[in-house]
UniProtKB/TrEMBL annotation:
This is Cystine transport system ATP-binding protein. It is a peripheral membrane protein. Pfam families: ABC_tran. The keyword Lipid biosynthesis does not apply. It comes from Croceifilum oryzae. It is found in: Cell membrane. Gene3D superfamilies: P-loop containing nucleotide triphosphate hydrolases. The lineage of its organism: Bacteria, Bacillati, Bacillota, Bacilli, Bacillales. Its EC number is 3.6.3.-.
């Protein structure tokens, strides 16, 4: 079958540090994938490779009809742009432009990357601010918004580009605990119509269990186990997955707040 995303033998090293080891993965259109795993296992690096923020050392990435092969050399700007045009990323730390309002932040890519007029862009994105519950805040600057509201603007901004795949890198990790639920609720809503392909790196296990079609457990730069949420959380087959989940459960028993 022709999958929307096909990653083959993807490797990434930073100098002598091998961070991703031959990752193979196919993702179907409309699939919601949650990527879990210990700190430093390469989850963010993997997402960053998918949208061209990091250049893989070897392997290939196909998204839609574009395939990029990596051989240690810097890819052409045109090739990177082709990856970027199909992916939008939501970062842990929002990364909004401080001098632009919420509405202007959401419009920015349409105007500067896609060359749309400001009038047309503002009409197109108004519905998106509504979707993330922020139409009342369209003229607010990031500093006037809570972290949760800023992240919701960042989600609207990512959606504005109409990406083939939405990449979310620990979207609630930088938020105060009371703001996490609101942002997760927005993402949960987005997963409901099963049209937007999404890959979400998260430490929120309950959330992953709820929204994902498939959970991927990464450790040490490899995909160790993949399956439905019930399979991975309920009946993990690999010892490392079990150990990781057991550690989380011990964390909860000690009330360390792992978001389960
Ligand atoms: N730009 C970089 N230069 C050098 N090493 C890096 C760079 N980015 C990441 N690394 C290293 O790559 C490894 C994987 O990091 P990565 O952030 O992908 O892990 P992660 O699973 O997302 O971790 P976390 O859950 O803590 O965010 C780590 O050892 C990290 O220090």
């Amino acid at each position: 079958m022709n999958s929307l995303i096909e990653v083959k033998k993807l490797r990434k090293s930073f100098g002598k540090l091998d961070v991703l080891h031959e990752i193979d993965l196919a993702v179907e259109k409309g699939e919601v994938i949650a990527i879990i795993g210990p700190s430093g296992s390469g989850k963010s690096t993997f997402l960053r490779c998918l949208n061209g923020l990091e250049t893989p050392t070897a392997g290939s990435i196909k998204i839609g009809t574009h395939t990029l092969k990596f051989n240690g050399k810097k890819p052409k700007d045109k090739e990177i742009r082709s990856l970027r045009s199909q992916t939008s990323m939501v970062f842990q730390s929002f990364n909004l432009f401080p001098h632009l309002t919420a509405l202007q932040n959401v419009m920015e890519g349409l105007v500067t990357v896609q060359g749309m007029s400001k009038e047309a862009a503002s009409i197109q994105v108004k519905g998106l601010l509504e979707k993330v519950g922020l139409s009342q805040k369209k003229d607010a600057f990031p500093i006037q918004l809570s972290g949760g509201q800023q992240q919701r603007v960042a989600i609207a901004r990512a959606l504005a580009m109409n990406p083939s795949v939405l990449l979310l890198d620990e979207p609630t990790s930088a938020l105060d605990p009371e703001l996490v639920g609101g942002v997760l609720a927005i993402i949960r809503e987005l997963t409901k119509d099963k049209t937007q392909t999404m890959m979400i790196v998260t430490h929120e296990m309950n959330f992953a269990r709820d929204v994902a079609d498939r959970v991927i457990f990464m450790d040490d730069g490899k995909i160790i186990e993949t399956g439905t949420p019930d399979e991975v959380f309920g009946h993990p087959t690999h010892a490392r997955t079990k150990q990781f989940l057991d550690q989380l459960y011990v964390g909860i028993e000690k009330n360390l707040g792992w978001g389960l």
